[in-house]
Amino acid sequence: MVKDLHVTLSGVELQNPVIPASGTFGFGQEFRPYYDINMLGSISFKGTTREARFGNPTPRIAECPAGMLNSVGLQNPGVDHVIAEELPRLREVFHQPIMANISGFSVEDYVTAVEKLTQEEQVALLEINISCPNVRHGGMAFGTSPEAAAEITGAVKRVATKPVYMKLSPNVTDIVSIAKACEDAGADGLSLINTLLGMRIDLKRRKPVLANIMGGYSGPGIFPVALRMVYQVTGAVKIPVIGMGGISSARDVLEMMMAGAKAVEVGAANLVDPCACKTIIETLPQEMEKLGIERLTDITRVE
Ligand code: SIN
C-alpha cells in the first residue's frame, strides 16, 4: 500500500509531515539506538538560546493522568556549541531538512541566534519560540501580546534567510489576534500550540511538585485544545500552520491536518515511547487506506 506522505512548508519539501517537537528529542542522538531517525520529516531541535542555560531547579517534571508538566527552563548548550558540536553530529546521521528552534529573553537574543543558525546549510526552517511558559522574562511574555509578537517577528525576519515559523502560546484569550500579528509582521508560518500553564501539588508535602511551582502541560489531554486553536488560526491566516499538542497516533495526525495543519509535531509521546514517531509514520498509510486518502495534501479543511 503506497501512499504519498510528502508535504511542503514554505517551499521546503518534507518526506512526511511528522516532526519531533522541540525539547522532546534533544538533538536526535538519544533516539538513534531505537530507529533510523532519517525516516522523520524533520527534527525541531531543543530550543537554543544565545548563551548556554542550565535550566530551572529540579524537580521539573510532574506526571499527570493524561500528560505531563515540565518546567525545564530552556536548558541548552547555547547557539555556538549547537553549531560547533550538535549540528555536525546530527548531519552525519540525519539527511532531511532541520528545523532550528530558537528562544530568547530580548529582541537582540533572538536576532543573534537567528543570524547564526540561518547560515547553517541543513537548517531549512526557523521556529521562533515566543511561548515558553517556564522562564520569568522573555519566552511566553513575547507570545501573549500581539505587539511584542509582531516586534520579534519583524526583527527576526530582517536577518533570516530561511522561512520563519513563530511558535505560539495557548495561554492567551485570543490566539487568532497573536497569529494575525505575526502574519502581518512577515512570518512565513506558525507553529502551535506550546504547552498549557499548569500545576500539581504533592499531597504529603502540601507543596507544589515542581520546584518552579508551575509548568507547561503537554500530552494527549491537550489534543482537543490544540486542534481547536489550529482550526481557529488556519481559518484566519493564509500562512501555513504546523499543528502540535498531544499528538500520539497516526489518526491524531490526520485529524490535525483536517483541522488545517500542513505538518505536525509530536512532543510528549516521544517521552512515553521513544518509537512514537516511527510508529506514527509507519501506520499513517494504513490509516489513510481505511479513510480512502491517497495523498496527505488531499486532506482538506473540514467546514
Ligand atoms: C522549557 O525548556 O522550559 C520548555 C520549552 C517551552 O515550553 O517552550
Largest sheet: spatial strand order: 3-16-15-10-9-8-7-4
**What compounds sit in this structure?**
succinic acid
* Gross morphology: globular
Helix content class: 25-40%
Q: What share of the residues does DSSP label as strand, in percent? A: 15-25%
Number of E-type strands: 16
The largest sheet is: 8 strands, parallel
Count, helices: 9
Structural class: alpha/beta
Distance between the termini: 29 Å
What is the mean pLDDT? Answer: 96
Radius of gyration, whole Å: 18 Å
Question: Could you describe the 3D structure shown?
Answer:
With 303 residues, the protein is an alpha/beta fold. It is 31% helix and 19% strand. The chain has an eight-stranded parallel β-sheet. A four-stranded antiparallel β-sheet has the order 5-6-14-11, with no helix packed on it. Strands 1-2 form a two-stranded antiparallel ribbon. Helix 4 (146-159) packs parallel to helix 5 (175-184). Succinic acid is lined by residues 23, 47, 70, 72-74, 129, 131-134, 194-195, 216.
Task: Give keywords.
alpha/beta; 303 residues; 8-stranded parallel β-sheet; binds succinic acid
Outline the fold blueprint.
Elements (H helix, E strand, L loop, with lengths): L6 E3 L2 E3 L3 E3 L22 E2 L16 E4 L2 E4 L8 H15 L4 E5 L4 H11 L5 E7 L10 H4 L2 H14 L4 E4 L7 H10 L4 E4 L3 E3 L2 E2 L4 E2 L6 E4 L4 H12 L6 E4 L5 H9 L4 E4 L2 H4 L3 H16 L12
Parallel strand pairs: 3-16, 4-7, 7-8, 8-9, 9-10, 10-15, 15-16
Antiparallel strand pairs: 1-2, 5-6, 6-14, 11-14, 12-13
This protein binds succinic acid (SIN).
Succinic acid binds next to loops.
